[in-house]
Amino acid sequence: MEYRCYATPGFVAEFLADGLTVRNVLRAPAVLFNRKDALHDEFLQRRFGMRIDRYPRHYLPSPSALLEGIAMGAGYGLVPSMQAQGLVQEGVLQELAPDDPVQVDLYWHHWEMEPPIAREITELIVGRAEQCLIQSRQPARKVSRQRALALIPSHRPVPGLSVPSM
Asked: Residue 10, SS3?
């Protein structure tokens, strides 16, 4: 999924008049999803070639609230371009880094042996995603169930307990 950096024209005039520079980033509030959201930090590091930690930020842990916060002028931030498209066309938002989109890989997790209705849902979602989203250049990896469970922080093997195979 493609994310782009947006802000309102008024916000740009107040905080980013001379562009998205390190100096401006250190004083302009950003809008992030939550404290675990590293996308903005990665965007800034890639854009400026260095890690920038101390910038003002607001957290709005809902995709629609995050977009609404940016559209209300609370800050600038990264939003899926599909989600922001209408507001950009209406002139409510403007793109801050048109040559610097951020690609985020999306994954659809499902059981290999799933009920027919779940398989139909999977096929619909994957088919629509292939039509609407930019596809990754990297092929999807298959991970064994045991490895997948080991990657989940809260899931650790319990001695004497076996996990049934699916």
From this structure: helix
